[in-house]
Amino acid sequence: MKTRHVAIIGGGAIHTCHVEALRQLPNVALRALVDIDGDKGSQLAASYGCQFYLDYREMLRDDAIDVVHICTPHFLHKPMILAALAAGKQVFCEKPMVMNPQEVAEIQAAATVAQRHVGICYQNRLNPTSLAIQRCIEEGSLGAMRAIKAVLTWSRAGRYYSASPWRGSFATEGGSLLINQAIHTLDLMQWFGEGVSRLKGVVDSTLLADEIETEDSAMATMCFNNGARGLFYASNCHASDSPLLLELEFEHGMLRLADNMLWQIRGDGHTRLASDASPDGVGKSYWGIGHQQAIHHFYQGLDNNTAVNYCGIHEAAKSLQIVNAIYQSSLLRKWVNIIE
């Protein structure tokens, strides 16, 4: 099989997960790294044994590059995806794909014209606990789903935003807590509930009000397409990054994800079903361990010329719609319907 040559745009913290995943793939080679910080970028490229570019547009002129990974601030995702597709590259991008649902159609149209795939990194779908939850839902042994509750409490101090000025701004981040940290939790909730039909939510900035123009806390009540209800709370104002607390209530029992362990609860009985503990220490415990799997699935999809194995444009748009609906609901102070 022909070797696929890859370029990564962005040398921030998350790019190391991509490098590690690529190293484990057969017939894949990292050919280039792009970063606007010349000193840092050139040092990283030298350590990886690949070429370095200051300008991603110059990198895109290299016909040998087959796939581009985008690990940059949110406001750069759309122009970089469009440019990469126009250059005939396959694209794998960190979430969010774009900063609002209206921009999704542009990405879809460009991908159709280019006849290329776009994968978006919703890696938490591939955590062992997430896959175990989905299997339980499909098996139906707990009966109909009645509710999903999610609580996400992380810590993002002012220095997190001052160190990267694009964060904390609607123009460049598109929001904060919801579109950056909690979007993965919202994606899992809608995935388990077969989509969200309507919701009512509130966002606010509390401890970080003097640091950012965006939100640091949010809550929402949702109605899922499978008939269940959803309760969601998230904040970046905690003292530390706590693992996600997720509970799914069914007719005949409950699934509870706590401290990265998934438990099935029936009456007084507790059975451990899965764990998200990282066997190799790669990544952070509160991120989950699905990054490498998400990237591997994308490349499997390229091998099979199908979008089934990874989160593509249509699936990535769902959580973005929910984020946008919560912002709208908070502004309007009323329920918002979600139409796919």
UniProtKB/TrEMBL annotation:
Residues 132-255 form the GFO/IDH/MocA-like oxidoreductase domain. Residues 5-118 form the Gfo/Idh/MocA-like oxidoreductase N-terminal domain. It comes from the Bacteria. PANTHER family: D-GLUCOSIDE 3-DEHYDROGENASE, UDP-N-ACETYL-2-AMINO-2-DEOXY-D-GLUCURONATE OXIDASE. This is Gfo/Idh/MocA family oxidoreductase. It comes from Kluyvera intermedia (Enterobacter intermedius).
